[in-house]
Predict the 3D structure of the following.
Amino acid sequence: MTARKRLTAILQNGGLAIYAVFALFPLLWMFILTFKSDAEMLTTTFVFTPTLVNYQQVFFHSDYLRYIKDSFIVSTGAVLISVLAGVPAAYAFARYNFKKKETIAFQILSFKFAPEILVVLPLYMLYRQMGLYDTYLGLIWVYQLISMPLIIWVVRGYFEDISVEIEHAAQVDGYPWWQIFFKVLLPLIKPGLVSSALLCFIFAWNSFTFPLLLAGIKIEPITVAATKYLAQSTVHYGQMAVAATCSALPSIIFAIAIQKHLVRGLSFGAVKG
Amino acid sequence: MNNPNEINSNSSVLRGINTVPFKTRVRPYLIVAPALLITIGILIPFVMAIYYSLTAYTFRIPNSDFVGFRNWTRMFENPQFWNALKVTITYAFWSTTVEMLLGLGIAMLLGNLKNRFSRIMRVALIFPLMVAPVVGTIIWQLMLRSSVGIIDKLLNLLGIYGAQWGASHQTAMMTVVMIDVWINCPFVIILILAGIQSLPKSPFESAKIDGGSAWFNFRNLTLPMLKPGILIALLFRLMAALQEFSIIFALTKGGPGDTLMSLSVTAYTQGYMYQRFASALPLILVLWFLVNVVANIIVKAWRKAQYQAAGKDIEETHAKREKNASNQIIREGK
């Protein structure tokens, strides 16, 4: 029996290890590539003299920092607006009973599932006419389709977890509504709010279809810029690897930070992890 | 855009709508309004899409002459459309199937193993999911290049030469599916793993006493209880896979030939690259319809599974909310 148990353990660990290699090796390989000079790129595999020249090139001799800035402005703006408008809405969905409540809530959720191309083609025409094409505001607005449903549905779940009695107690004690909201409710939903806001940031940061069609000349988020690196005639693989690594880094760091709440965020509150 | 003033006035917690004055009755609508207005503004194009699909509009020659269903009939006569439909369904089928099976397997492994390796992997496995799909595709593209990539070198060691990956008709689909699995399998894993971790212990203890085989327990205990979580993962993955654009676009732009011309990519090529706006719209409206049909089927199944699996375990409010929720999706789909 023990021999069989040990065999199962070996098989299970082995299976996991194979998947781990599949999942993590590409990222590791890309990271290694960032330290490889162009000269050694095609001739060596793992043994080479590491250099920082790719980092220098990308950060000081290319537009990379501008792409990062664009991505950052658009993603942050999108998250801020979603939080400001979405958290009150989430509260209303959690606490009030009103006609058509679930219809409205589901309408907002359905935005997440509309094919991006379907939204973006007519929007391209509209943005051109309205002067929103290739602007920060235009992108921030369209990113609401990514971030607003997520904030509303996830934060709503966290509001629903708070007992109404706590609010009643605070009311009886004579606190005005805004003090109840900021001093009682907000601290309680803070983990949920922060994690869903960061997840929105990641999604907005990673978004590709929207900026590809609605921006790309003056404003160029890194996802769009990254594909252009590949199309160049002389590809500097090391520099591409640097660009890819640095664009992936914020998302990965945030994801580790919100790990505990990730399941709830990713499933829009449908699975409470 | 958003107006915080709209949420002032006293926000007492309400029950019993009928007895309250008008001012308090409209309050929830006012609170929801900013969020709704912001998102609904984006939806104007959606209505426009349906209208313009009936016109002869192009970006070059803006001409909104009404042409009835010409764009639609042309699309149905065009073999390109049927190919796009086939590619879309094939892609969605394979990527979702592999992700669900692999995801379930890995989640079971992670749930069983309690060592440090599995604890580290629980965190590390989500990394590919967090990398932008485009960037993930670029990484794979580099790995698969015969010049710089590592995979060819490894295959050479095994005696396999000249794999074409995305550049060949035979392997292009397999390649994008593989990249999709790499990016999205962690999503399935962590959703199912969350389900595994919240499984009640008692049924498994009694099953142990009864002495059922591992496979029997898995099929008759674990799987039914995990079903709601599995269906949610399936719902999200299938809907996204049907619409997938960035992976295919970043890898081959739909090529070679029309091997990977899915509905999304075809619509993009027609509408944006060739600027034939009106003739691209029916393609994505068909896609939208397809996504809706699939979502309705899965949501129905999920609702049923929730009833069967949850019993009294899930808190009542939660179940009630989700029941309402699924009702809504079904109603909207009709």
The first helix of chain A runs from residue 2 to 33. Chain A touches chain B through 108 residues (CB under 8 Å).
